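Bumping with the actual sequence this time:
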Amino acid sequence: MLQLKNSTPFAASATVFANAAGVDTLYVSVKASFSLTKEGWILSEEQVELNAEDIYHGDAASSSLKSPSDMHTGKPGTDVIVIGNAYAPAGTSVQAMDVRLAFAEKQKILRVFGDRTWQKGKISSPEPFTEMPIVFERAFGGGPEHKVNELNPVGTGYAGGRDAAEMEGVPLPNIESPHQLVASVKDEPEPVGYAAIAPHWLPRRSLAGTYDQQWQQTRAPFLPHDFDSRFCQSAPSDQVCGTYLQGGEPFLIEGMHPGGQLRFSLPSVGLVSKIELKSRTEVAAFNMETVLVQPNDLKINLVWRAAVACGKQVSNIGNIFIQMQR
């Protein structure tokens, strides 16, 4: 009988379901929660549990993804997700500011504006702000009910065929790319943000594969042959690493903490999983699949995952040991 023996201080789970090839696979997941202090990262008193499903800011149909599910068939690289607000410098109020995320030779800058609306085809002056949520509700998207922006259905500013008169008073996005700023009601820039992308939004949805009559007759309930493992990646594409982060990588976040710039290195944690089968013991390596940073709260969650394809041996799984490695 499958039994999880977790000797780490972190949250952990062990589940069995079919992988992308339809083979029963044991997935062992670990989530570690840390808090940032002047001395560096320390273990958080409260360890966040693994997500069995996607968690949204509100209703899944009308709000953005807050924290993605940790249960899936595996990510081919590490997702980096940032949840939080932009803060004007030193408690002042500003009409616009930049925030910056840099890690693993990647850099991403967002331009954050105060509230603006379309006024006779022109953009109103931004309202001063001291704090602004960096969520997709405030990025470009949305639109009329009959033609929403499928890259970001919950955003704002997408005309969807409406003219300047019909866009009168419609809010513009608070969050834009400095390289693709909205200038006209007809502009359609790509929505930008640091948060997770919902599975039913494009382009992520297009990676899920084809679920048609042929799939129902020849493949169901397994994933379709054209399923792309990148579907499991919920971070924006420019925040997805081509390989797995190992821990120790330097990060820089600017404009998302009241105290100013944050510089830190990812916590370095060594983990190993040993799985007892009927006639042998499997040692499974963990990959760091998700980094979720909450700069406002000086917290970070790391999720690792190990997988062992068991097939017909799944009933022979016994103890599953999760241990720290030095």
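The tokens above came from a reply further down the thread. Helices lie at 213-218.
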